[in-house]
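Final paragraph of the annual report: two paired records, presented back to back.
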Amino acid sequence: MMTKFLAAALLLLSLGTGAPLFAAEVSYPRAKPQFTIEVPEGWKATFRAETLLLMPNADGSYQVQIEATREPAPERARRRAAEVKLTDFELGTPAEAENQHKVTQTVLTSRGQRGDAAYALTLVAFSVGDGRYVAEAAGPADANRKHNVALLTMMDSIKPVAAGN
């Protein structure tokens, strides 16, 4: 009896972990999809040319953009930091992991200042088939902390599209 109670309690606790519910599955790229990604409920997914933009709110202060790339993550982080005029830039240390669908991903979070505000830039580089892609999450550091679980859960949902589909 106690075992069933503990199992039920653990299940209820795990439901409240803050992991987002998913509202949509989006294929990327649009023309010849190589993978799908699950988008959390409340997030907006739009395409701008060949870039998939994912935003949790309408103000666009924090966004995730996914696109094809040949640029290594550290070089991209340095370039993007210069483009958004970050000062006191600190390049993060890359960490490699495999998601639930066996897609190897390299995660790199870098930090700096943009004006008076702390800013974070998280890059997740991955390959599917012959394509190399990057998910870039950028915005104020507090928004980065707030949406980090959603970002990592989306990255875990990346699933290669079966050949012929």
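The closing record of the year follows.
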Amino acid sequence: MVSAPIRFRAVNNFVTWVFLRLYARALARPSRNLPDQACDDAIVQTGMVLGAPLGAVLVAISEFIPGAGTHVDKQDPFFVAVMIVLVVVMMRWVKKQCSSYRNMPEAAEAYRSRSQRLTTFVGFLLLMVSLPAAVGIGLHMLRH
């Protein structure tokens, strides 16, 4: 069995890997490519990459808990507050993990080639498009 610190380190490594890929892509843009700006944008995008699966899991779970779907449908203030707190906590954690790279743009150098940036863009796009589609199809199949 893998110990908790090793699992946590693996999550940190994954977050850092995603961030560095997005940071390299941001540094190579024609605008907003200064290290501070690129770092801020990559932090937000990293949060999106982590938040999309989290949102999909929460939507899927709400399908299995009786009455949970009504909180989403009726925009229950408590449910909205819980979601906002989860997003804020996750984004603060991502910022804490990645903001030190603001002064180290060379850390993203391995991902700055054109092919690496294209791979990052395609992966980001596929995740943002396919995940909601997969959740929607899965939920449709569960309901019918």
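Helices lie at 4-27, 35-64, 68-73, 77-98, 114-143. This concludes the annual technical report; the extension proposal builds directly on these records.
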